[in-house]
Each structure stands twice: as structure tokens, then as C-alpha cells.
Write a structure and sequence with these properties.
By secondary structure, this protein is mostly helical. The chain has one domain. It contains six helices and no strands. Helix 1 crosses helix 6. The protein is elongated.
Length: 88
């Protein structure tokens, strides 16, 4: 296998690990906040809580409950780039 092929395989592994990390973060935050992930306005607008974990930081901050923002301050909210850097 070529260097490029091995690099791409490694990238896919890291991406899969990131998805597992992100799901675990979602579940932990949901448990810690007792399901209160969204602000009242976000709930009224039908925002999906999962979108706060997969979308841009600005979107997450805009629609997150104060409890979720506090959870992120304590536990972090890594982007894929940050996760990839830590994995390297």
C-alpha cells in the first residue's frame, strides 16, 4: 500500500474515532444536563440538539442551554481538527 493510501486509512480511523468521541460527548452532556441541551428558544424553533454537536461553534453557542454551555466549559467541545491534532 502506498504512503497516501496508508495516510488516508489513518485519517478514516481518526475520523471514526472522532465520531465515537462526539457521540459519547453528546450522551454524557445529555445525562449531565438531564436532557436540557437546548435553550427555550431553540426548543420553540425545533432545533435538533445533535446539531449543536455536529455544527459550527457559533451555532452551538447560539442554541445551547446555559447548562450545556457550562458542561462544555468544563469538558470542552473539540472540533475534528483539534481531535486530529491530539491523535497525531
Amino acid at each position: 500500500m502506498s504512503i497516501v493510501g496508508r495516510a488516508f486509512d489513518r485519517w478514516r480511523e481518526v475520523r471514526d474515532e472522532f465520531e465515537l468521541y462526539r457521540m459519547a460527548q453528546f450522551e454524557a452532556a445529555e445525562h449531565a444536563t438531564r436532557g436540557n441541551l437546548l435553550s427555550a428558544e431553540a426548543r420553540a424553533r425545533g432545533i435538533d440538539a445533535w446539531s449543536l454537536f455536529i455544527g459550527p461553534h457559533a451555532r452551538a453557542q447560539r442554541w445551547a442551554s446555559e447548562e450545556l454551555r457550562e458542561w462544555w466549559r468544563e469538558h470542552g467541545r473539540l472540533t475534528f481538527a483539534e481531535f486530529e491534532e491530539q491523535a497525531a
